[in-house]
Amino acid sequence: MARTVGANKADSHDRIVGAAAKAIRREGYDGTSVAEVMKDAGLTHGGFYAHFPSREAMLAEALDRAGAESLESLFGAASVRAAAENLDPLEAIVDVYLSDQHAAAVDAGCTIAALGSETRRQSPAIKKVATRRLKEFAKLLERQTASTPHAPEPLAALSALVGALVISRIVDEPALAKQVRDAAAKLVLAKPKKR
Length: 195
Description:
The chain is 72% helix and 0% strand. By secondary structure, it is mainly α.
């Protein structure tokens, strides 16, 4: 019986974190309420404190989950695209990250683009998670592009990609949003000039 209770609690905890991971990308930190997360997880609000000591603890775990999911999704899709279309890894990453689908997938996409400007106002625990995930993104970029002779410095590429996605999501002109993403792709994929 205790094993079932523990399994149920772990399942409930997982559902809460999953619901919160979507909510923070969609609504931001301040827009993510415990009541809504619990409702989305199919649980009662009263059960929250059996899983987390505070809302902040939930947000930190949700950010960690969302960051892991977005990196796994990005690099998985890029690997598939690279193999299917015979692209170099950097080109595949850029295509997937700056795609129309990723730009539209706010609640499932990159946490850095969705939450970057808000994260600076959050607790040290949340900033620590964000920093770790950003470093992981840069390391994954570096590993994936190690064989690409013209690959830019990973933090520069990451900054261009994230910046373009943020800007394309805030403008109200779809054509301009696409131009911004195309310009970033061109910049990241440009071969260095010979001196």
